[in-house]
Amino acid sequence: MKSIQSRLFLMLLTFIIVPYFLSVLFIYEYTKNDVERHKLEISHLQMEKLSEELEQYFNDMINLPYILYRNPDLFRILNNSSEDSIYFNPISMEKIIENFYLMRNEIRQVRFYIDKNKEAFIVYNAMISARKSQPDLLTQDSMNKLFHSNFNYLIEPPKQIENYNNTAIVPQSDNTVVMTIHHKIEDVLSNEFLGIITIDIDLDAYARICDRLVQDDEESVLLIDSNDIVMYASDSSLIGSNISGDLLRWMNMEDDTKEDIILSKTLSEPLNQWKLVKITPSRVLFSDVRQTAYRNILVGIGVGFLGLLMIGIISYRITRPIKLLSKKVRTIEGGNTDVPFVDNRDDEIGHLEKHMKEMMNRINLHIEREYKLEIENRKNQFRALKSQVNPHFLFNALQSIGAVALRSNSPKIYQLVTSLSKMMRYSIRADQWVLVRDEVENIHTYLSLQMERFGNNINYSIKLNETILDMTIPSMILQPLVENFFKHCYEEGCYDAHLNIYGEIQGEILYLVVENDGSSMTVPELQTLRENIYTAPYEGTFSHEHIGLKNIHDRLILNYGQDAGLELDTKQGQVFFVRLVIPLDSKLTND
């Protein structure tokens, strides 16, 4: 049973705390969606702006070699006609090449390949190497692809800088990762292929553009070319490698069912089909929202604690008089009828206490009257007992009569008196525990007296093994059933009846059976007898004719519990038997 105080706490949780946390959850979801939408809009705008900057940067880098066409002297180098010119000035040409190298800070190395002589030279750190023959350069995959391409440029994925001419001006300690752009140079008028300018650029320049998308350490940005190769990534270990299949699938997903927020922007010329990708973990995107939700939860816990404290105080003040009244009722249930009730309350509790006080006064008056009646009944019973003969006096008197019989030379009389005195002595042990053997011996004594009365033609048999005989049972539990045999058989003229007493142990149950074939019952009579015997003690009405059976049944239940009792039945309407059901426990074993 739930107390009023616990119900008040439950009401608090149901109508205050739970709605509050539901509202926090609703606000969190709403704010989360609003923040996501807002940040996605900002990210899209940033990606649009930075995409344009990337496209402009690479456009400048790709168009950088076109300056050769505006500088005749530099163009003559690729045309290999400068050395034959009377205007050829080596120092001036070196200055022009150095200036070309120094045009952009991110240029790490430049290679000039002159197709006419199959020679190449490089510029590294503003120093020009000697020319070196490279007849197989166009057979390389990237060079061959560019040579047969309709485009004038080719961008290779980032890799460690390479010493193209194996010259000393490139130190072995330079491990810079560079992106390589190959430019195909042709004569504008004749479309003659003149050579290739290869420019290695540092990643820092366009990396700074990409990194402006990242606003948190856990965010990342990727620049992916049309062949799904990573040209730049916040994680440097990914640069130059193929993009993972999982990321590629996530980028192509239309629904947002993944944990990370992935934004992708496809770039246009000159970075045709390149993709700029921004990856934002959801925990970063919604960190501010979660912190706000956590603060609200902490505030809610504080409010809930104060609410619990408040309802605890209120419920204590309200339920305290109810608890006191309940305690008084439990005291009355324990038997204490002298309970003080207050008279100075004007509320509902005071009204209850007033009526309970009046009710207890009436109950006490009734108990006092019943107690006096009980005392009077006891006195009457005591007077009746005083008028009865003391069993011990009868036992001693029978012993004296037996002695007189012996002196009078009458052993038969002595035997009968002795048997009767044994029964008197055994009856004094009523409501005690005895061995089954003692109960059987008393039955034999009783039968010997009945034989003297009815003659020696009484038919009976007692079959109990030693195990059963050594068990203990309440005294006078079988003997009344033997009395019923004579009462309902011999006294009614059924002298051919047979009394049979036997027992058996099945599992944890001892069965003792007393049956006779001299009298029986109809089905309605048997049903009526069962109903009278199986009624609870002091309930129902039954004939005094069968009070012994009910007494045995009630004693068995009292001593062994509800699993014990009597079973009454007939065998095909001819043989009537009574079976005693006794669960085996410690009381059955002989001490």
Automatic annotation (TrEMBL):
It comes from the Bacteria. It is a multi-pass membrane protein. SMART domains: HAMP. It holds the Pfam family HAMP. InterPro entries: Bact_2-comp_sensor_kinase, HAMP_dom, HATPase_C_sf, Sig_transdc_His_kin_internal. The keyword Phosphoprotein applies. One of its GO terms (cellular component) is plasma membrane. Keywords: ATP-binding, Cell membrane, Kinase, Membrane, Nucleotide-binding, Phosphoprotein, Transferase, Transmembrane, Transmembrane helix, Two-component regulatory system. Its main location: membrane. Residues 316-368 form the HAMP domain. It is found in: Cell membrane. One of its GO terms (molecular function) is phosphorelay sensor kinase activity. The chain crosses the membrane at residues 7-28, 297-318. PANTHER family: SENSOR HISTIDINE KINASE YPDA (PTHR34220), SENSOR PROTEIN KINASE HPTS (PTHR34220:SF11). This is Histidine kinase. It comes from Anaerobacillus alkalidiazotrophicus.
